[in-house]
Design the sequence.
């Protein structure tokens, strides 16, 4: 390319990949014949048509939230493999911290993304994810720590050593897949598809039942969602409750009354055990965890939001209200940036001792979802919308939402994008719109 001084030109390049030289030559020839600009235009038009489905009316939302919503769906879709796996992040910068990437499928993150896709009306992507899970699930009925996109078990930093009988897993990764599958069926009623992924109902149900501790009524110890400690966590117990409840509903659909009643009893027993062992009457809130040595972790942790997120308790219950008030009061970052930290004195990539931790998108959006869930009027919905707006404002200009943001500058911290952040954003927007319609119909 010859350029005059201070002039501008455009140069295109492409990489042709194939299984053999013939494929590469054919692909390269196709690009030359059609032209790069035409291929870019076709791609842009395709994804514009994909994201602008009329499944949900977004017109009542501010423009910046609509843009962030569509960007989130596109970014999530770009992380979804053709064989179903949804990787957590394609950002390689994290290599400098732990010598590995986030380019794996955590079935927790994938299940939450699948719920977001389903709520937004993109069922094909979630169906591929469930098929991936049906193939990847262990014979014992649980999911390993994480997977590569080809379905093989990924590298893990969860130690094998733990309390007696404890598996090196995060049980919520199993529970949330079953719960997400029920949410999918609840919306689309595609019983033939459910029949095509039988392990996700049969094997997971058996495992979750077997992994309940008969002495406490709670799940047996496992690793927490933050992958830092082993014990019995409010988050995990809440997701297992949701999964058992979902399993009961599946069995009701296929008219197995005996199984339906047994699973209902198991779910009710777990809920009762949560009130007995994971609720602290003195502080009037759900605690973070009970550890194998019997000690109770009273750290205020945003993951306790799971008690209402997954249907165990109503968002307006006093126990939930006090829990969420504690989370808001203890974890809100009181700087111009704002946002909610994971838990008290979170050391992971902590940038300052002046705050209790860095603001996380997912935690802030859980608080938004609580305000939405308990809203009784349009005025009360505003708090939820403000927190959704916080997330959109702290995305990069490209629309990318990181795992965390810097508490003083708002710059991204850790991986960017994080699919989980985008999935929670989509879910929060969908729940806001649903509650808005519900309250408007009552006015």
Sequence:
């Amino acid at each position: 390319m010859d350029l005059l001084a201070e002039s501008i030109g455009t140069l295109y390049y492409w990489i042709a990949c194939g299984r053999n030289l013939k494929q590469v030559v054919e692909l390269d020839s196709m690009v030359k014949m059609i032209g790069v600009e035409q291929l870019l235009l076709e791609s842009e038009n395709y994804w514009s048509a994909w994201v602008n489905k009329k499944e949900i009316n977004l017109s009542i939302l501010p423009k910046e939230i609509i843009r962030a919503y569509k960007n989130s769906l596109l970014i999530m879709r770009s992380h979804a493999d053709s064989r179903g796996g949804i990787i957590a992040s394609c950002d390689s910068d994290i290599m400098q911290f732990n010598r590995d990437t986030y380019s794996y499928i955590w079935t927790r993150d994938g299940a939450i993304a699948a719920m977001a896709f389903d709520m937004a009306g993109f069922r094909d992507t979630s169906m591929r994810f469930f098929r991936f899970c049906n193939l990847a699930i262990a014979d014992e009925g649980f999911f390993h720590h994480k997977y590569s996109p080809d379905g093989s078990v990924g590298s893990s930093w969860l130690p094998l050593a733990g309390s007696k009988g404890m598996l090196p897993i995060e049980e919520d990764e199993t529970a949330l897949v079953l719960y997400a599958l029920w949410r999918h069926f609840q919306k689309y009623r595609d019983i033939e598809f459910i029949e095509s992924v039988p392990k996700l109902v049969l094997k997971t149900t058996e495992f979750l039942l077997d992994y309940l501790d008969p002495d406490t009524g709670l799940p047996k110890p496992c690793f927490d969602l933050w992958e830092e400690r082993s014990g019995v966590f409010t988050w995990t117990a809440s997701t297992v409750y949701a999964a058992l409840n979902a399993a009961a509903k599946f069995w009701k659909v296929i008219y197995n009354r005996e199984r339906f009643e047994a699973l209902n009893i198991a779910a009710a027993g777990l809920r009762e055990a949560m009130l007995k062992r994971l609720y602290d009457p003195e502080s009037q809130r759900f605690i973070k965890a009970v550890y194998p040595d019997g000690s109770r972790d009273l750290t205020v942790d945003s993951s306790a939001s799971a008690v209402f997120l997954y249907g165990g308790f109503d968002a307006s219950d006093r126990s939930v209200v006090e829990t969420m008030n504690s989370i808001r009061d203890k974890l809100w970052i009181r700087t111009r940036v704002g946002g909610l930290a994971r838990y008290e004195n979170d050391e992971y990539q902590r940038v300052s001792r002046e705050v209790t931790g860095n603001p996380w998108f997912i935690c802030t959006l859980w608080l938004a979802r609580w305000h939405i869930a308990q809203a009784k009027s349009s005025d009360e919905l505003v708090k939820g919308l403000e927190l959704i707006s916080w997330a959109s404002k702290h995305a990069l200009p490209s629309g990318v939402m990181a795992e965390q943001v810097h508490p003083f500058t708002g710059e991204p911290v850790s991986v960017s994008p994080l699919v989980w952040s985008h999935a929670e954003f989509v879910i929060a927007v969908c729940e806001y719109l649903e509650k808005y319609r519900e309250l408007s119909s009552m006015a």
In short: The beta strands are 222-223, 230-233, 279-280, 285-286, 289-290, 296-297, 404-405, 412-413. Residues 77 and 125 are 8 Å apart (CA to CA).
